[in-house]
Automatic annotation (TrEMBL):
Primary residence: membrane
GO cellular component, as recorded: plasma membrane
Keyword Hydrolase among record annotations: no
Superkingdom field: Bacteria
Organism: Strawberry lethal yellows phytoplasma (CPA) str. NZSb11
Protein name (Swiss-Prot/TrEMBL): Protein translocase subunit SecY
Amino acid sequence: MKRKLKLILGNPKLIFQILFTFFIIFLFQLGTRISLPFIPSGFSGWKLSGKEIFFIAPQKLFGLGIYPYITASIVVQFLQKFFPFCREWKEQGQIGKHKINFLTRALALLLAFAQTMAFIQKSNSQLESNLKISGFNYFLIPLIAAAGCAILIWFSDLITSRGVGNGTSLLIIASMGGSLIASFQELNINYLSKLRDGFDSELFSQFLLLVLILILFLVLTVIVQITALKVKVNYARNRVSSESGSYIPLKINTAGVMPVILAQYLMMPFTTLADLIGNQTFKSVVDYLTNARIFNFAFGLYILLIIIFSFFSTFMNVNPEEISEHLSKQDAYIAGLRPGEQTTNYLSSVLFKVTVIGVLFMITLVTTPLLMQRFFKLTHMKLGGTSLLIIVSVAIETIQRIMATAQKKEYAKIF
């Protein structure tokens, strides 16, 4: 531990990157407290349902968070799978990457504009005429909110290129601050403040059980995030390499935190559309499909989306066919398997089985907050499995990147 800390503190460039990342996150938090202009005084609309994991306050400059960009990324990923011209962009190298980035950003800004307009529409239907937003401001406010979203996309790119960790992931963590604070406040009101007034053995037992559940899930989440199945690889030309323990690591949770985030965010545009249309029947249908409570239809749909995105993300990140081709080029093979199709099928089968374990664990995690809300009567409890998965995943990824950067300089000194 001391050696790792010494590596970090002895690298001025890395310290600058860490401080730069904190500075960008500070600017983000500042932007979530700046109200959008041209909102009438006394306007009290845009109250959220409380179901959201991520802190979203649409009347603020950065209130939409990085959500529109993530939703746009999902759409573009599916376009690449099903439309030939998008697949061609992927194969065009740097030029194709610029086209995909442009499409993603343009779509994100359109979503941000539509999301804010939907909030205005919803609020106007509930307010008196003197407090309603109308005229030119009806279009200007969403335009400013879209500009705020564009700034956040820029912040994300800055963190990724000049800071430490993945910019989008870190901004998601930063946007969760509000909901996590609300969770701690509810714990304080429901348990700690009552225990301070007078000891209650039943209340204390409930609080202790709740804390133990959170600690257990924290430990299990860390274990699942760092655990991988090692597939042994042998080399035909090099006996030493064959005996040195070369392997292909297949993580239990290869997809990481993205399936949960994608499933959560994919449901939001339908709510936005319902608010824009304003039809009560359509709103009821959307609420039935998206308002996830324990064991209702929306909950089942939410779980189904997590399963789909888990397998989709896993096989997008780890392509068994590409691994098989790479092994053949390196004169490497898996014991008892012929190079080519047999190796590909074996890797696909193993990856599928490993992903099933990861998906089952993820489903357990996302079910936890709903169960905790029911049995512990915590209406705003968001510090559950989903939050832990996001926090642990991003923390591990960021620490790994910091250590990789620190060790790179150490290796440069040796050579």
